[in-house]
Amino acid sequence: MGVDTLLLALIDGVSYAGLLFLVALGLTFIFGVVRVLNVAHGSLYAFGGYTAASMGIWFAQGSGSITLSILALILGAGIVGVILGYGLMLLLHPFRDRDPIILLLVTFGAFMVLEDVQVMIWGTQPYFVSDVVFQMGDSELLGVVFMNYQLWFIPSVALAVYVLLRWFLKHSLKGRQIIAVTHDREVATALGVNASSIASLTFIIGATLGALGGALASPTTSLVPGVGADMIVLSFAVVATAGLGQISGALIVALMIGISRSLSVYFLPQFEVVMPYLIMMAVLLIRPQGLFTVAEARRI
After folding, report:
1. Is the separation of the CB atoms in 26 and 209 below 8 Å?
2. From first to last of its 300 residues, what are the pLDDT tens digits of the chain?
3. Nearest 5 degrees, angle CA 198-CA 201-CA 203?
4. Cβ–Cβ under 8 Å, residues 51 and 208
5. 146: part of which helix (H) or strand (E)?
6. Could you give the angle at which helices 275-286 and 227-242 cross, rounded to 10 degrees?
7. String of DSSP letters for 5-56
8. In angstroms, rounded to a whole number, what is the distance separating the alpha carbons of residues 103 and 93?
9. How far apart are CA 230 and CA 226, in angstroms?
């Protein structure tokens, strides 16, 4: 095992963990507040990637402007997060008091419909817009050359989103209202909190995070039909391993799974696909509630 290869695997793993964390963060944030396990979150990832790539082709490709390229990524994620996030919230509204399994099935149905809509809009040909990667250039680290987009940009965005979300929840009025609804929706409503408005805000924030993961992945990944399904399965593995609703736990587990998956690609490629699920199964055998969730006493 060469040091160069190990360094490559670690940097690839951290970069991939950044994308995985953003998608898992949106998924676990929505579940923590709204109590909906959103299978359609995979479609938000795919639509975020396709929309960002389309906007990059539309007004940034060939301009040579790094600002326009980054703006295309942000706009793509924002548009998808607001429109699809709000649309999914409206779809789930009539089922809000139904069994969680019904809610899960509704989001699964939405995922299947959105998969077809995605093919109708963008077809089956791969989408790939990598201008921003070349515009950011390269850096040398311990004798190995890395793309700055992968080395600095993706991990920095993921870390910044984590810090901002923590700050928002602790220090803003809306953030405190979200925490209040998370702990006890009825008491929060009795105290004057508009729980429906908070649920919509939470869903849109979570949807935007999922779309941002897809948008950031679009310059380094060929977008093809099914890309959302792959990411949502991995995101479920992260959320289940960390524990549902655990934001900091999702960050740690995303790093753990991202790096272990990358090490598998370089040193044990036959375990690349199964490695995240082996970790998940090992954790759930010991702690069924997840690594960072405190088990609650059963209420009688």
Report:
1. yes
2. 677 888 888 999 999 999 999 999 999 888 888 888 889 998 999 999 999 999 888 876 777 788 888 998 999 999 999 999 999 988 988 887 788 889 899 999 999 999 999 999 988 888 878 888 888 888 888 878 888 998 899 999 999 999 999 999 999 999 898 888 888 888 888 888 888 889 889 989 999 999 999 999 989 888 888 888 888 888 888 988 888 778 888 999 999 999 998 888 888 888 888 888 888 888 888 888 888 876 554 444
3. 110
4. no
5. strand 144-147
6. 30
7. HHHHHHHHHHHHHHHHHHHHHHHHHHHHHH----TTHHHHHHHHHHHHHHHI
8. 10
9. 7
Report whether 4 contacts 170 (CB < 8 A).
no
Length, in residues, of the chain: 300
CA distance 118 to 135: 28
For residues 221 and 49, is the Cβ–Cβ distance under 8 A?
yes
- Distances 272 to 46, 222, 260, 261, 262 between C-alpha atoms, Å: 22, 19, 9, 6, 8
Angle at 165 between CA 162 and CA 166, to 5 degrees: 85
pTM, two decimal places:
0.90
Please identify which residue in the block is written with the tokens 């139904």. 98
Estimate the share of the chain in helix, then strand, then coil, as percent rounded to the nearest 5: 75, 5, 20
Q: How many CB atoms are located within 10 Å of the residue 21 CB?
A: 29
Of the candidates 211, 281, 278, 289, which has an alpha carbon nearest to the alpha carbon of residue 249?
289
Query: CA 26 → CA 5, 30, 58, 146, 207, distances in Å?
Result: 32, 6, 27, 28, 6
